[in-house]
Amino acid sequence: MPYNEFERCQMHPFLVLPKLSRGDQVAVISPSAGLPGLFPWVQELGLRRLREVFALEPVEYPTTRRLNAPLEARARDVLAAFANPAHKAVFASIGGTDQLRLLKYLDPAVFLAHPKPFFGFSDSTHLHLFLWNLGIPSYYGGAVMTQLAMPGHMHDFTVQSLTNALFHAGEVEIAAAAGYTDEASDWANSATWQAERRLDANEGWHWDGTADGAGRLWGGCVESLLAQVAAEKYLPSTAALAGSVLYLETSESMPPPWVVAYLLIGLGERGWLNHFQAILVGRPKAWDFAQPLTKAQKAVYCQQQRETVVKTVRAYNAHIPIVQNIDFGHTDPQLMLPSGQVARVLGSEHRIFLTY
């Protein structure tokens, strides 16, 4: 294990956030889409799981269930949720498409004065990266309407990962889930939306490269990262990012492989692919109501994305380990990735360790 790299990744200062206790209060916000207002029964199930599975007391903010709430109003809720000392963590209800436009209304001083863990994924990539720039760790995953409101019951794999993120401190070796699903329930159909989802067998991780690497996690949803790179307003400096571990995953929009390649080429031309110590890629979501692929079609889609990632990265960096098909992002069960915390990726042993 290259411990010199492990030490170098800690040159960028990050806060150590306190862990939660059972009975703590947490905030629930909708910084992107106010879908709890359209599907309140799904939101209510997620809130109940916070209470019953994790013994936490959720508090919603005014725009949480407000469809198309103005950006300024959503930003006020984000700031108020972090500023309230009674809240020990903040959860996003779900993702969306316009959170990047929210960031200009956020005051960094509020977050630095009241740092706390944030949970969410997809469009919440933008808030994760905003916090990363402030040296505040967060957790990529665990949205209220998706993972917490999983039909039937929460997956044990998800519960354990959320438990680690919320209550435990230290390094954890992760493993692949036994099964997964990338198919969704129709929230509008009250007769079927709570039916248990069928799980497919998980083929496990796909490794390329045998080097070892360690660094603080930085990344998110490919589509959101493309917007970040285009805006170029909230990206970290190359020096701050040096020694990090990149994580990527694609959303239910199911972008073609060239979209992933364009993002990686952009990062490569910045020189960043030579600064990352490893790359972790979540399992692609290969089914959506608009694109209900067959099992064979899913396999082709996922293979094409894997091959594109390896080919594009290797044009810039021949050595760093690339691990794909990991259980984070838009498929379930879901691993909580500790953004801003250290990940160790041992290509020599095909093992991954995350710091919670």
UniProtKB/TrEMBL annotation:
**Which Pfam families would you find in this protein's record?**
Peptidase_S66 (PF02016), Peptidase_S66C (PF17676)
- Reply yes or no: does the keyword Chloroplast apply: no
Database matches in InterPro entries: Carboxypeptidase_A_C_sf, Class_I_gatase-like, LdcA_N, Peptidase_S66_N, Peptidase_S66C, S66_fam
Q: Where is the LD-carboxypeptidase N-terminal domain?
A: 26-141
Q: What family, per the record?
A: Belongs to the peptidase S66 family.
Which species does the entry assign this protein to? Hymenobacter polaris
The lineage's top-level taxon is Bacteria
What sequence ranges are listed for the domain LD-carboxypeptidase C-terminal? 215-345
Q: Does the keyword Hydrolase apply?
A: yes
Gene3D superfamilies with a match to the protein in the record:
Class I glutamine amidotransferase-like, LD-carboxypeptidase A C-terminal domain-like
Q: Which PANTHER family does the UniProt entry name for this protein?
A: LD-CARBOXYPEPTIDASE C-TERMINAL DOMAIN-CONTAINING PROTEIN, MURAMOYLTETRAPEPTIDE CARBOXYPEPTIDASE
This chain belongs to the protein called LD-carboxypeptidase
GO MF annotation list = carboxypeptidase activity
